[in-house]
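Field reference: sequence -> structure
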Amino acid sequence: MIYLNEKKWLLFFSDVQPRRHTVIRQVLCNKRTVSSLFWGMQYHILDWLNVEPNLNEQEFDLQITKLRNENYLEVTPTGLVLSPNGIIQKNNYQKSNYIITEPKLFQHINEKQWLDLLPLLIQVVSELSYHNRHYYVIGSSIRTQLFFRAWYQTVNNKEKLVTSLKHLLEAFLERFPKEQADIFMSLFSGHKTIGKTFQQVAMVLPDFSYEDVTTLWRDLGMQFALFLLRGDSVFKKLVVPINTEERLSKSASITYQLFNERQNIERIAKRRRLRISTIKEHLLESAILCDKFPYDSLITVEEYEIMTKTFTGDVTNWDYNQLSNRIEFFKYRLFQIERSKKIG
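Structure field:
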């Protein structure tokens, strides 16, 4: 059994701000609710949406309990905070473990498809460099192979793929420490070469655990996808179909588009055959995740004046009951989101 270091979850806790571990888990595995997105914004962890899509709820909760029992996390009425020892352990983890440096990419690029496709690309081009057409594909799914084959057939000058990919990898990897670059490339199979497993790499490198190697593989793999997207090579076409610039869920995106077309909430709900409450949830998600949102089209001047006079300071300490039902909760939450973004 592979041991996973539960101390990495300390990265998402603070020594001054109480945080609920359920919110952290929901953000990491991209289980979106308005509540988890709102509190994820307050915790400043929304960049980490979907970084751990397969996170098991029961195992995560057990690991949090272990961190509490080891006195790394302390319980408060509103959540968990890092203890003095927890701060030390968090700092130690940051110094000695590999941590994903570009978490936002996991919201935009389909990790599962890309990290299945990338080893196939490396293997095929490697065999191509030796003019070898007779080999077994290692690891990639049938779906990925069909997708790759369709792309490969569109390439006119296949011989140029070898030097092109070699130069791209060299340009990409020169930005990283040599040891990290070497680890990344050692995981690929090629002509008469079988890629190492994560465990095999970890066994020969004392400074890299199994978890470090898998994290490095995911991080550099996704960064290479971005590197290709930003370029103009023939390989860009492999990444474009599995990339999206959209941060909103599909349904929320449709609602927000209709809203930007000047359709009101009631009309959108009727057109989409959804409840008004669902449309409002979509708009709250849009307000949280989009850079620009027309708050003043939903909150009146009078309502702004009331809430501005009623609430000051940290939005997480506000109490909706202070409004005495004069303003609906939906608009109160929008006001909280707007103020949160202005404060930063």
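Note: The longest strand covers residues 73-76.
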